[in-house]
Specification:
The structure holds 2 protein chains of 2 kinds. Chain A is an alpha+beta fold. Chain A is built from 6 helices and 4 strands; from the N terminus they run αααβαβαββα. Chain A has one domain: Glutaredoxin (3-Layer(aba) Sandwich). Chain A has a 4-stranded mixed sheet, sandwiched between helices. In chain A, β1, α4 and β2 form a beta-alpha-beta unit. The longest helix of chain A has 56 residues. Chain A is elongated. The termini of chain A are far apart. The mean pLDDT of chain B is 92. The chains are: A alpha+beta, B alpha/beta. At the A-B interface, α1, α2 and α4 of A face α1, α11 and α12 of B.
Chain lengths: 233, 406
Amino acid sequence: MVEKNLNIGTVILAVTVTVVLMGGIFLMGTRLSEEKVTGIEREITRFEIERRSQDISRQLAENLPEKNCDALEVAVEQTISDTAVLADRVTDYEDNVKLGNNRFEMLKKEYMNVLLEYWLLTEKVDEMCGSSTVRMLYFYSDPHVCPMCEDQGTIITHYREKYDDTLLVFPLDMSLDMRHLTILRETYDIEEYPVMVVGEDVHRGFMDMDEMGQVLEGYIEDVEAGNHTSQTT
Amino acid sequence: MIFIDMLYIFFFFIMIFSAVLWAIVYYKNLDKVTNDPPVDKIREVTFLVPAYNEEDCVGETIQRLLDLDYPEEALDIIAINDGSEDGTLEVLKQFEDRIKIIDKENTGKADSMNVALEEVDTELIASMDADSYPNEDFLKNMMGYFKDEEVTGVTPALKLVRDDNVVEKIQWTEYIYQIFLRKIFSLFDVQYVLPGPGSIYRTDFMKETGGWREDTHTEDMEVAFRMMSKRKRIENTTNSVVWTDPPSRIGDLFRQRMRWYRGYVENFMKYRGMLFDPKSGNLGMFFLPLNAVWIFMLVFLLTHVTYNILLMGYQALRTYMLLGYYPIDLTITIQELHLFHIFIAFFFMIGLGMIFLSLFSAGERVNMKERWLNYLTFFTIYPYMFALFWVASFYGMAKDRGRIRW
């Protein structure tokens, strides 16, 4: 019986070429991941610059003899859409992660910082000029801790798009280990998610379309009627 | 990276490795892809044509065999009427002065071939299904391979006689692709099937090893496994074309594939001793394990893709129930792209490359205008169908063991 040939050399060459090709694809994947994170980073930087500009405007308005609240309100409205774009980008990134990126973990925290700073700024603008927006703090966590958060997010996105120039949503990822998130958790006595804080109302657990619609409508009507009162305390 | 992603990466590795391996084998043997060894002498050959209820096509098959460009004195034809209930025998009798006819009770294809084998006294045997026929120069391209004593079988290129409906169009591209693959497999010495239409066997080998086995769903595959287990070679030519009649309905295709895939598993199990045996060459060491991974991979992918489609449907329904409508967003941002999309784009390019090589190997031209649906269905429906047939075959094997049918 004749011995069969074994083409080990061919197989080894094929494995080598495959490894090189896989390496190339992974490299492209890493580059793509970097590009995505850089995109978010750029958005955060832009958002941060916007927030600082608004804060300077607020300080100027505070210190000048005549307050220019109209200009401040216009600036806040512009930032609402920036917040939404940034939130979408972060969500899209998180939904499509195949290669982890350490920079994103840091950026996510930076994003939370910027959001909270912006929230505090709008508080101050409200105190000075009265409220022109409805603000919602949305506390969520990962699906293992909060299985209903995905559905809640869908409903909140719907209302954010519906009231696109009035409703400001601050989505806060409570799975992140950040000191000020812990402070907020303790302040609002949060044990389970989702939790939504609108004005002085703290809503615990999942809210369906109707419930959330009723809650928001009251606040939206107040703002649109020019009943400028501080929204969140 | 989660476990399922790691599994996908492993599958991507296997896919790329397979494509690279075949590309290397192809490149190393460029001169052999379309060139066959010259005919050293005229070898006597007997065609065996088993027929069961084939009155519509067997006449043309016999006529085409009689018209072959080969010395008449070196060519015998034995037609076997396997207890047909239609007019097959009457059609065959029209050729009785030029061919030998065996009329017997219906006992199945393998037994019919064995009955005819006893009558064969030529050096070579060629099988020809009654619904297939060869090109005129069919034999001349194949004979040169038998100069090598270790070659016990040679396979031809199979093409479909028509590609009118979607089921046939999918198979058309598959057959073209198989011409390329079969050639690569022969160059890598891992051919594991001698197709019923047009394969040529060394008579001595068939007689000495017991002819065609009746205890398998695919007797032609069993012969190939047997040859390989006895360290023989099976060669292939892309220049000898056999035209075959494809199943036109999905049900018929399903039954055909169930039989093929079950036959493959039966023979895989029967010859499992070849697995990882260096003496079995590339087939046992590399190809059979790789094929096993491919089958598992396809079944897994089918299951996982189905699960994901159902999950997407469920999520869409859930969103609709939550909002009272479904928000449609057709924009794609860079944030939604990830590593797997790069792999998919790469596989698409590999697929295109394979199709071009297949068309070249099969002597076909790229005809996007007329064949676009053939290529499209092959890329979209075929992989899903292929995996589905495998799942059905495994289910069939678990449910119904041992029944052999035509």
